[in-house]
């Protein structure tokens, strides 16, 4: 039997769905305070972990180590520049068939997947070639 969500979990999930973008735990904490729905930062982290294990929130860890949370709406795929941190969403998904195969072969319940490529964006490549710092 699935446990009932706490009020904090419901608030966080509602916030993530309304924002429709990935956001850090600290930003969730600040946004809830701005909306007069204060919860402690530790509570935000606990709620995010529970929602992640329920399969309704996904986490994406950037090259900097920062974790961004979003509601699970569709699989996310990105090209991320290691120099400037710019992240470009890509819409193609070469792993949907693999996901189905893994689910069938291992009876593994997959909530979502992410696919991320790390490298240098065009601007950073050009800056590197000319020896000028990129922004």
From TrEMBL:
InterPro entries: FUR, Fur_C, WH-like_DNA-bd_sf, WH_DNA-bd_sf. Fe cation binds at residue 113. Pfam families: FUR. Keywords: DNA-binding, Iron, Metal-binding, Repressor, Transcription, Transcription regulation, Zinc. The keyword Cytoplasm does not apply. Belongs to the Fur family. This is Transcriptional repressor. It comes from Chroogloeocystis siderophila 5.2 s.c.1.
């Amino acid at each position: 039997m699935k446990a009932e969500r706490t009020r904090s979990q419901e608030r966080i999930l509602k916030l993530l769905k309304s924002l429709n973008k990935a956001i850090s735990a600290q930003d969730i904490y600040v946004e809830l305070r701005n909306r007069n729905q204060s919860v402690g930062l530790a509570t935000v982290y606990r709620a995010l972990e529970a929602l992640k294990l329920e399969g309704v929130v996904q986490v994406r860890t950037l090259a900097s180590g920062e974790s961004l949370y979003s509601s699970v709406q569709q699989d996310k795929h990105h090209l991320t520049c290691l120099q400037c941190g710019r992240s470009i969403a890509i819409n193609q998904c070469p792993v949907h068939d693999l996901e189905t195969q893994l689910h069938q072969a291992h009876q593994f319940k997959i909530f979502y997947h992410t696919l991320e490529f790390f490298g240098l964006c065009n601007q950073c490549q050009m800056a590197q070639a000319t020896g000028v710092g990129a922004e």
